[in-house]
Amino acid sequence: MLLGLAMLGFTAVQYNDPDGLLWAVYYILPAAWAFLAAFRLDVARSALGMRVLWVTVAVWLGLVIFYWPQMPGFWRREVFMVEETAREGMGLMIAWLALLIALFTAHQKSSA
User: Of the candidates 14, 96, 30, 102, which has an alpha carbon nearest to the alpha carbon of residue 63?
Assistant: First the structure.
């Protein structure tokens, strides 16, 4: 649930970004999966749900690779406060982590 709320927060701050709608999609889908894993495990762990979740995880991994920050030390405050590409790349890393946690949660519950 906390990851879902964090992803909703990431979505909300896209309102003034020129490509905010695209980034809102990048963050709202992991939020939806986090909420499904928290509140509707039956949907997340269904056969269709697991297939779609795996595809989402794979696509977001591709996005992480595509948006990986190229500047050295992108994780340092003095870099990411200036470079939007560093913030975008790290945001996608967090979104992918949220998806992995949703996948792990759904997988663990379906194996039990």
Answer: 96
- Residue 75: count other Cβ atoms within 10 Å of its Cβ: 11
**Cβ 105 vs Cβ 37: under 8 Å:** yes
Alpha carbon 8 to chain centroid, angstroms: 10
Instruction: Look at the chain and report how many structural domains it folds into.
Output: 1
**Over the stretch 74-105, which tens digit does the pLDDT of each residue have?**
999 889 888 988 999 999 999 999 999 999 99
Structural domain that includes position 29 = 2-111
pTM (2 d.p.): 0.89
Average pLDDT estimate for 31-44: 94
